[in-house]
Write a structure and sequence with these properties.
single chain, alpha/beta, seven-stranded mixed beta barrel, 12 helices, 29% helix
Length: 384
């Protein structure tokens, strides 16, 4: 009886899905790359035009975390998994208050959500007015981006306006040199966690994910999150035991004030931890260069070697900029603590003689590996 019920349930769901897909009229759409290359597909129901830097994520789970990660601000996301939307969304699993990607490109878009107590991804996208294309040959598109590098793109259902879109695309700003942290950082300070805790942490918000705050809260750390451009003296009024530099979008080099604040934190010898963009800021504060990557790293299965322990870690990553290896190795104020095993890029730093370290990957990732969780405990010991 149980097997029969399950078979009926699955068959019924499949029939609903096939019925919906056969009756859903999807308008034609296309992806226009900056070099003029076009990939054709159809609208998933949200029509219009959106511009951004095109990138891809190889993770097969966790699309809601991707969509709500402020680090993806200004980017059009290509998902490499075959189905998007089939397990719906739960607002409680979002990493911020809204969707931050500029648009979505996927292979198969499901308007039917099968997970219990979930909401429809399509309705969520419609409420956020997010342009979404499906029925794209995402394998061919990803291979093209891998060979030709990340570039600006437009996704649109206005397929008869290609010439006009090409002109607008030429004027769209490049991610290289673009400051975006100010677009996603909190406008006013706010507190998070147990306000009776003995450990207090000042967080500089460059585009922070909720999972990071949850990791601190679970370790009974009382956090106050500050806007990205807050003066060092203003944050000291909170009487923090240490500081944290969050993840975020865009090029780290234009964040001159944040770099200066980081130098002040180091001069006063406060414990300091940085993730992703925060990692790059710590590098710049120590005179180490950063650069725009050809493609970047975005996925949940990136192998990293911990040079201190000799252990391998499977990590979640999302970044289009990186710390320059040559200037990091020649700089006597730091040492490389982690390296990416796919391309030997810098994946972690430690500042010599200071209670400061950083990683390029995301140890807080929700739908992803937990290999990097020890970093929060490592930082907690420094705060204590």
């Amino acid at each position: 009886l149980t097997k029969g019920y399950m078979f009926f349930h699955i068959s019924f769901f499949c029939l609903i899905l096939l019925f919906e897909m056969s009756n859903e009229k999807r308008k034609k759409g296309l992806v226009l790359l900056a070099d003029g290359t076009i990939f054709y597909g159809r609208s998933a129901g949200i029509e219009g035009t959106s511009f951004g830097e095109i990138c891809f994520n190889t993770g097969v789970t966790g699309y809601q975390e991707i969509f709500t990660d402020p680090s993806y601000f200004g980017q059009i996301m290509v998902t490499t998994t075959s189905h998007i939307g089939n397990y719906g969304i739960k607002i409680s699993e979002s990493q911020s208050q809204k969707i931050f990607i500029s648009g979505l490109i996927c292979k198969t878009f499901s308007s039917v959500n099968s997970r219990s107590n979930s909401e429809s991804l399509k309705k969520w996208f419609e409420s956020n007015n997010l342009v979404t294309l499906c029925d794209i040959d995402t394998r061919a598109l990803v291979r093209y981006i891998r060979d030709n590098g990340a570039m600006n793109a437009a996704i649109t259902t206005e397929v008869d306006k290609i010439d006009d879109l090409q002109k607008k695309l030429k004027d769209f700003p490049s991610m290289d040199g673009l400051e975006l942290a100010s677009k996603v950082s909190t406008k006013t300070p706010y507190e998070y966690g147990n306000n009776k805790s003995k450990i207090r942490l000042a967080v500089i918000d460059l585009g922070i994910k909720k999972n990071i705050l949850d990791n601190f809260s679970r370790r009974d750390v009382f956090v106050k999150v500050f806007p990205f451009d807050t003066d060092f003296e203003e944050m000291l009024k909170f009487k923090p035991d240490g500081f944290f530099l969050s993840n975020g979008p865009g090029d780290p080099k234009p964040l001159v004030k944040v770099i200066k604040t980081t130098q002040q934190i180091l001069d006063k010898d406060y414990p300091l931890f940085g993730i992703c963009l925060g990692h790059q800021i710590i590098a710049l504060a120590n005179g180490i260069k950063t650069y725009k990557m050809f493609n970047g790293h975005r996925g949940i299965n990136h192998p990293v070697l911990n040079l201190n322990t000799g252990k391998g870690e499977i990590t979640s990553q999302n970044h289009g900029f990186a710390v320059d290896y040559d200037t990091a190795t020649s700089n006597k104020s730091v040492k490389i603590s982690h390296k990416h095993l796919n391309d030997d890029t810098v994946a972690g730093l430690e500042v010599n003689g200071k209670k400061c370290f950083s990683v390029q990957y995301h140890p807080e990732a929700g739908p992803g590996p937990n290999d990097g969780n020890y970093l929060f405990d490592q930082f907690l010991s420094k705060l204590k």
